[in-house]
Amino acid sequence: MTGSAEAGQWASTWTPTQYARNGAVEIAYDRLAGSEGDPLLLVMGLAVSRFWWPAGLCQAFAGRGFAVARYDQRDAGQSTRMPDTGGSNPFAAVARKRGAYSSEDMTDDAVAVLDALGWEQAHIFGASLGGVIAQRIALRHPDRVLSVVSAMAMPSDVSGIGGARYVRFGLLAKLARAKFPEGREGDIQLSLMLAREVASPAYPFDEDAAREWIEREADSGPRDTKAQSRQAGAPWHGPRLSELHKPVLVLHGDQDPILRVSAARATAKAIDGARLVVLPGTGHDLPAPLWPAIASEVRQLAGQARASSG
Question: How far is CA 127 from the centre of its chain?
């Protein structure tokens, strides 16, 4: 099956978009149709939509006995876009240590989705900024979380400019300089550039598959620096990572062009019993050849969570 045909098949595998409410904020979510088993909630990264989750990876989770759901964080995808406040520089927003809303608000959005799904508890898998939020969900709402997978993420208790030591600024500067036309076509071109740049150097980039889902759900997130600034600048006032007492898996590519592996090592070191898996040849993405292994790791983690609660 060609990449585009395969991606087209995945388009019909998700339930219609629904919305959970956290106060005045509406959070868009959907479920992988037909997936049953242990609840698994997916949290995507900085200002991009839930459609960035590889459908084949979600199918691999379903094949391992998970009911899979994904959602758009506030200021991303089909969820509520917050009022413009402050500047449009995400790095400056992080340094300010104050924002339009808090990271606690962002964790509460995830719990609103759990409530809407009727899930009392769930395993949480977060990628990039979503990994940070996944850690914080477990810290703020430990009774709702069974386990945490933090992929391609910083430690959640790093704040302000302290996180700069983990960042590779070259790609971020390149993306900031990129110029594309306004509107849907420009959004598509920028998303394709981003997908190519974060792709794993040791694995082939499936241009057809990326183009299919990017064109199907054009995402303004990669160019919306104001939304990026609001998300990145959301301050965290909650517990430190050392207080996270859930089974945790930390995933990170050794060729990640955005975050250094030291970010993952710091996260795993801070959490008692966390398992660190460094993925050789992998960038700031989850390449298709690794989906079976990643799904197996998440299933193993779920088994650990079941054993520890039994």
Answer: 3
d(CA 190, CA 45): 16
Give this prediction's pTM. Answer: 0.93
Q: What is the CB-side half-sphere exposure of residue 287 using CA atoms within 13 A?
A: 22
DSSP letters for 80-138? PPPPP-S-S-HHHHHHHT--SS-HHHHHHHHHHHHHHHT-SSEEEEEETHHHHHHHHHH
d(CA 298, CA 149): 7
Give the list of residues 6+ apart from residue 261 with CB closer than 8 angstroms, or none: 252, 253, 254, 278
* Identity of the residue numbered 305: A
Please say whether the beta carbons of 246 and 148 come within 8 A. Answer: yes
Q: What is the predicted pLDDT for the residue at 3?
A: 40
Strands 38-43 and 66-71: parallel
Distance CA 172, CA 182 (A): 20
For residue 27, the SS3 value is: strand
| Range name among 81-85, 195-199, 267-271 with the lowest pLDDT average | 81-85
Domains belonging to the chain, first-starting first, are 3-309 (3.40.50.1820)
What whole-number distance in Å separates Cα of residue 43 and Cα of residue 61? 14
